[in-house]
Amino acid sequence: MMINILAAFFIFFGLVFFIIGSIGLLRLPDLYSRLHALTKIDNLGLGLLLIGLVLFSADLIIAIKLFLVWFLVLASSAISSHLIAQRARRKERGIWKI
Predict the structure, then answer these.
(1) Which residues, in sequence order, are CB contacts of 57 under 8 Å at separation 6+?
(2) How far apart are CA 19 and CA 51, in angstroms?
């Protein structure tokens, strides 16, 4: 019973971080700030969500697969955001000017 409450807690806060990241994507002024919101906050939200799902599942193989998915998402988001920021810097776009 206590594990289910703890899992629900992690899932809830994971979804809250996803919502905050989505709001950051829509509200932040420039490309670099938006990339920061997407890579940091959404990866934290996914980590919390996966911890909650691991607590719900009782199987070790499922937990390993979930953490493997999280690792692949972390790696791909870091690489893709770096490539996007590098391209924007070369083209001198994305900087918010007053």
Answers:
(1) 63, 66
(2) 18
Overall pTM > 0.90: no
Phi-psi region of 5 (alpha: psi -120 to 50; beta: other; left: phi over 0): alpha
**Angle in degrees, CA 3, 42, 21, rounded to 5:** 115
Annotate the chain with three-state secondary structure: CHHHHHHHHHHHHHHHHHHHHHHHHHHCCCHHHHHHHHHHHHHHHHHHHHHHHHHHCCCHHHHHHHHHHHHHHHHHHHHHHHHHHHHHHHCCCCCCCC
> What pLDDT, in 10s, does the model give residues 51-62?
999 999 889 999
Which pLDDT value is given to residue 94? 55
Of 80, 77, 76, 6, give the one whose Cα is nearest residue 48: 6
Say how far residue 73 (Cα) sits from the centre of its chain.
Answer: 8
